[in-house]
Amino acid sequence: MLKGKISLSLLIGPAIPIPVPKVIIDALASIEVTSASGEEASGFQLVFNFSSKSPLNLLLLLLGQTGPFIRTIIVVTVNGTPNVLMDGMIIHHQLTPNVKTGESTFTISGSDLTSVMGYIDFSGVPYPCMPAEVRVLLILAKYALFGIIPLVIPSLFLDVPIITEKIPTQQGKDLDYIRQLAHDNGYVFYLEPGPAIGTSVAYWGPEIKVGIPQSALNINMDALTNIETLNFSFDGASKVMPIMYIQIAEAHVTIPVPIPDFNPLQPPLGLIPPIPVQFNQLKDTAKLNPTEALAKGIAEASRSSDAITGSGSLNVVRYGHILKARGLVGVRGVGQAFDGLYFVKKVTHKIQRGTYTQDFTLTRNGLVSTLPQIPV
Known about the structure:
It is built from 6 helices and 21 strands. The chain has helices at 22-27, 57-66, 132-140, 174-184, 290-302, 316-319; strands at residues 6-14, 18-19, 28-36, 43-51, 70-78, 81-97, 103-112, 148-152, 188-193, 200-205, 214-218, 229-234, 240-248, 253-258, 270-272, 278-282, 308-315, 328-332, 340-352, 355-364, 367-369. A hairpin with a 6-residue loop joins strand 3 and strand 4.
């Protein structure tokens, strides 16, 4: 589908997808894949153009017979390196015939494999003496047949419920419950497709903002410029400092404790962070034990730490790589205030015949780079 050093592979089928025939690839007009960190689910959209006599009608028949259990894997190879962009399920398809030309537009939309975790309500399942991370591991074990490999990071403040005081029970469907446990601990939950085709890593843990940066995004650097658009916004008023309350039962005293947004796995990427102008009082933490209250306070602080948001687009051929979400990337050529490392919050891949572009969203906690030199 794409010329040059970029090639596309598409696998579709129930349970175990198989490579689609050439006639389906020829009918493929565009692909859009979104990968995001946080609570936003990743998804994809495939658009086909074909006539009423095309063999692609067999795909329509297959979708109608098997319902929501059609699995789709999208793999893009750039400079010899395969990248699994999506491993998910088709959840919606739409046919739009053109009465004048006799051709039809067939649009397939889907989500990553988290969609299979949202079918059955398991409310009431007990988890005695199990901290949050053990509960998550037990829930994810049910989905091993989809190639989902759990990567669960223990909570910063381990809280093992005492069976004589409390027995945790699941509330809602698996996906909702896992996300709620992540939210309560200041963690994120998402599926990362790959690295092998047919497998995905289910990550439950802190949003890690350390590691080796990806190739830098350059602007205003003549021949070294490798992005098409880029803009930044700074919202200093968004900074919130949570105040949790800890109750000392013996003395019948409630103590307010301010929580800074300090996290060893999220070191500051900006040298000058905004000053908190809002204070969120977490009065419900007084009912929790100190460990639960502290975890909730740190979770609330981490959610409002990013004051800078950047958005832009790039051409993959010119950039030379695929920009991946949930990692670091350097930005050069914008100016002293906004140059430096950023966390890639969201990436949208847009593939058409002969072109491959990406829209991206970057975040950072403050102005001015913490590094004297930005990695290329």
